[in-house]
Amino acid sequence: MRSDDQSGFLARTIAAEDGLKLYVRDYAGDDDATRTRPPIFCLPGLTRNSRDFHQLALLLSQDSTAPRRVITLDARGRGASQWDADKSHYSLIVEAQDVLTVCAALGMQQAIFVGTSRGGLVLHVLAASRPDVLKAVILNDIGPILEKIGLADIRDYLNRDKKPANWSEAIEILRENHGSAFTALDEGDWQDMARAIYAFRDGTPVADYDPAIAAQMQALDLEAPIPDLWPQFQGFQDIPLMVIRGENSKLLTQTTTYEMADRHPGMTVKSARGQGHAPILHLGDIPDAIRHFISGL
C-alpha cells in the first residue's frame, strides 16, 4: 500500500469460543489520547480482511485533534485468521459471536462499528441480539435488502476465479472485475486494492481466504426468494446510524437507502462518488464524512 500496511498497529491473536485463532489489528490501543473516546471496530466483507481498513484506521487513529482506537478483524477463514475445519461455521451467527468474543477480550463494552458488506450483515445480527454493544454503526454499502443483480455480480466474479501469475495480472483481474463500477480509482488505488485482497505465497499472489467461503456464494440459488433483514434493522432504531452507498452499487439501491432513512429518521447518508460495491473508505471525502458522523460520540 502507499502506506506501509505492516506498521501503525499492534497485531493480536484472540481465541474464539471454539478455540479458533482470530487475527486482530489494534491501532492506538495503548495511546492515552484515545481512551476517552469510544473505539472503532471495523468488519470487512465476504472474502476480504483487515487490510481493507488499514489506511482509514491510520487516518482515524492518528487524527491530530480526536484520535480513536481502531480495531480491525480478519473474520475466521480470512486473512491471517485460522481457516475453520467445520465450514458450516462460516455463518453470520458464528461471526457475530466472534465479534463479541473479541470485544470481551479487549475490554470493549461498546464501540462504533463499521461494517462493509457481509460485515454489515453481521451488525444486523448484533442489532437484533446485542444492541448494547453498538455505540453507533456505519453500514458500508449494505442494508436489509440484498439485490439479486448485485449478488449475481459477486457470485459471477467468484466463479471466474482467475488466478494471477504475478502482481500485474492481479491488478488487471481487479480492473476487469470492478473497473466499470470504480471509476474514481487511480493506478495507486488499484495497487492498494490488490495488496488488500491478495497475499503472496511462494512468490505468487493468491486470494487471501478459505475457498469454502467463496463456494457458499458460488452455490447461491438466485431463483429462490432472499429474505430481507428489516426485523433486524429495527435494532438500529435507537443507535446513531450512517449508511455509505457506492454511487454505482448494484447490491444496495437508492430505493432501499431511502426506505432505511424513512425507518431510521436520524440516519446519515453518504454517497461514494465513482465507486461501486463496496466503497473504499479512505478515498475522497469519505474520511471527513466519517469524522463528522463520529465527532459527537
Brief summary of the model shown:
With 297 residues, this protein is of the alpha/beta class. It has a domain at 10-146 and 227-294: 3-Layer(aba) Sandwich (Rossmann fold), CATH 3.40.50.1820.
Question: Which secondary structure elements does this structure contain, and how are they paired or packed?
Answer:
Layout: E1 10-15, E2 21-27, E3 40-43, H1 54-61, E4 70-74, H2 92-105, E5 111-116, H3 118-129, E6 134-140, H4 148-160, H5 167-178, H6 187-197, E7 198-201, E8 204-207, H7 211-218, H8 230-233, E9 241-246, H9 254-263, E10 268-272, H10 286-294
Parallel strand pairs: 3-4, 3-5, 5-6, 6-9, 9-10
Antiparallel strand pairs: 1-2, 2-4, 7-8
Helix pairs in contact: 2-3, 4-7, 5-6
CATH homology superfamily of the domain at 10-146 and 227-294: Alpha/Beta hydrolase fold, catalytic domain
* H/I helix tally: 10
Give the helix level as a range of percent: 25-40%
Overall geometry: globular
Biggest sheet features: 8 strands, mixed
* CATH fold-level assignment of the domain at 10-146 and 227-294: Rossmann fold
Helix/strand/pairing class, anyone?
alpha/beta
Distance between the termini: 30 Å
Top CATH class of the domain at 10-146 and 227-294: Alpha Beta
Say how many strands there are.
Answer: 10
Which consecutive residue ranges, at least 5 long each, have pLDDT under 50?
A: none
CATH architecture of the domain at 10-146 and 227-294: 3-Layer(aba) Sandwich
Strand coverage percent: 15-25%
Strand order of the largest sheet: 1-2-4-3-5-6-9-10
On the 0 to 100 scale, the average pLDDT is: 94
Rounded radius of gyration (Å): 18 Å
